[in-house]
Design a protein that fits this description.
Distance between the termini: 64 Å
Low-confidence stretches: none
Largest sheet: 6 strands, antiparallel
Number of helices: 13
Shape: globular
Radius of gyration: 24 Å
Mean pLDDT: 95
CATH topology of the largest domain: FAD/NAD(P)-binding domain
Number of domains: 3
């Protein structure tokens, strides 16, 4: 028997539930499918659990610094990893259960649990069930890339997902990958008490960022005792009794790193290889991402792709925005597009990095006339008062239009303060709107107008 719906949504990550609410609220009969954990990456192995653990690591870090603030703590500071995990599981679990119950109680919405596969452009199987709809939305997310490295099959390793099951403290955590996931876990477990070495094939960390940002982040983590091996061109693994040996062909120092546990953090790939997309006529690009247009339609009429599987963002906030774009076009006669989106994201080391728009390097490469401002966090009163003065803020604006092109705030509160810049960018207003604003003292944001009052022509290198 085949059940007919007005819309089918495959996956309950960030884009799926909101879209289900909008479609069901418009009177459509909706089916939403989840094969494993409700909420997808963010709720179960991404934002919510990792930032919960980051909070525990921050508490341990501040406890060790208590004397700097005139606070005495008797004895040494220790971390109970079982309690850290239990707290993380509780926070993540409440979010997952709440979402599942909400979907199952939603009017006009039927929840199917199982693996979805296309049988045709309009028919999807879920186990023994067959369901059809004229509109199908793919929201299947992604997973960790498992690189081809010599010896990897001979040892146990962790990914961002399996790291969520750890309730013990690794003696020496080796991390392959010097980007966002690797850096967050690196600082986190260093603060918990592990020795940490991060191996990066490139010459610097997070290559998509400006060089001064990469340098500053490396310095911040090195001060906390995180070790780095850059320019690791030939990475391989072996086991020596209970130890993991990572071979790193670097230009200097030892060619081996010995550790107890290995985390692979070298990127993500979409969950598109077992959906039967060929039966639906849905095209993939060379990396396995679903090809979509500016309004997230796939190459098959009546099928859309949202979230991490379309390669258009890879963040929780971009996934959610995907659902807003689709709902606006289908229900509101509002022609919203992916290209309207300004790139924005954060790196949740401590202090965090908040980023919006173009990097300084991208602006230089464009050849446009620009102005730039930069201010160290040591000159931000709020940072000084909190004893958290690492990092800096910088901004780049178009010299002719005076519109803001991009900004980075690496420092305490940077992930929040960046939004005052981002909102003005969306308004396409001149930077003078912020420069002339009166911000509250003492905050991090109050120094943004000051920085904008000190702009200089962008010349030379960063």
């Amino acid at each position: 028997m085949t059940n007919r719906f007005d819309a089918i949504i495959i996956g309950t990550g960030q884009a799926g539930p909101f879209l289900a609410k909008r479609l069901a609220g418009a009177g459509m009969k909706v089916a939403i499918i989840e094969r494993k954990l409700f909420g997808g990456t963010c709720v179960n192995t991404g934002c919510i659990p990792t930032k919960t653990m980051v909070a525990s690591a921050y508490a341990a870090h501040m406890a060790r610094r208590a004397a700097d603030f005139g606070v005495a703590i008797e004895g040494s500071v220790s971390v109970d990893m079982r309690r850290v995990k239990a707290r993380k599981d509780d926070v993540s679990g409440q979010s997952r259960i709440g979402l599942e119950n909400w979907l199952k109680q939603m009017e006009n919405c039927t929840v199917y649990e199982g693996h979805a596969r296309f049988e045709s452009p309009r028919e999807v199987s879920v186990g023994q069930d067959r369901i059809t709809a004229d509109r199908i939305f793919i929201n299947v997310g992604g997973r960790a890339v498992l690189p081809r490295m010599p010896g990897l099959e001979q040892i146990d390793y962790l990914t961002n997902s399996s790291m969520m099951n750890i309730d013990f403290l690794p003696g020496h955590l080796i991390i392959v990958g010097g980007s966002y996931i690797g850096l967050e876990f690196g600082q986190m477990f260093r603060r918990f008490g592990s020795e940490v070495t991060i191996i990066e094939m490139g010459p610097r960390l997070i290559h998509r960022e400006d060089e001064d940002v990469s340098r500053a982040i490396q310095e911040i983590l090195e001060r906390e005792g995180v070790n780095f091996r850059l320019n690791a061109k030939c990475i391989g693994f072996s086991r020596r009794r209970e130890e993991i040996i990572a071979q790193v062909d670097c230009a200097s120092s030892a060619t081996e790193v010995t550790g107890t546990h290995l985390l692979l953090a070298v990127g993500r790939r979409p969950n598109t290889d077992d959906l039967g997309l060929e039966k639906a006529g849905v095209a993939l690009d060379e990396r396995g991402y679903i090809v979509v247009d500016d309004q997230l339609s796939t190459t098959a009429p009546g099928i859309w792709a949202l979230g991490d599987c379309n390669g258009k963002g890879g963040f929780t906030h971009t996934s959610f925005n995907d659902s807003e774009i689709v709902a606006a076009n289908l229900l509101d006669n509002d022609s919203r597009r992916v290209s309207d989106r300004i790139p924005a994201y954060a790196l949740y080391i401590d202090p965090p990095l908040g980023r919006a728009g173009k990097t300084e390097a991208e602006v230089r490469k464009s050849g446009r006339q620009a102005l730039a401002g930069k201010r160290p966090m040591t000159k931000v009163s709020r940072a000084v008062e909190k004893g958290e003065t690492q990092g800096f803020m910088k901004i780049v604006v178009d010299a002719q239009t005076r519109e803001i092109l991009g900004a980075a705030i690496l420092g305490t509160g940077g992930d929040e303060a960046i939004h005052s810049i981002l909102d003005v960018m969306y308004a396409k207003a001149p930077y003078t709107v912020i420069q002339r604003a009166v911000h509250i003292h003492p905050t991090v944001s109050e120094l943004i107008p000051t920085m904008l009052g000190e702009l200089q022509p962008l010349t030379g290198s960063d």
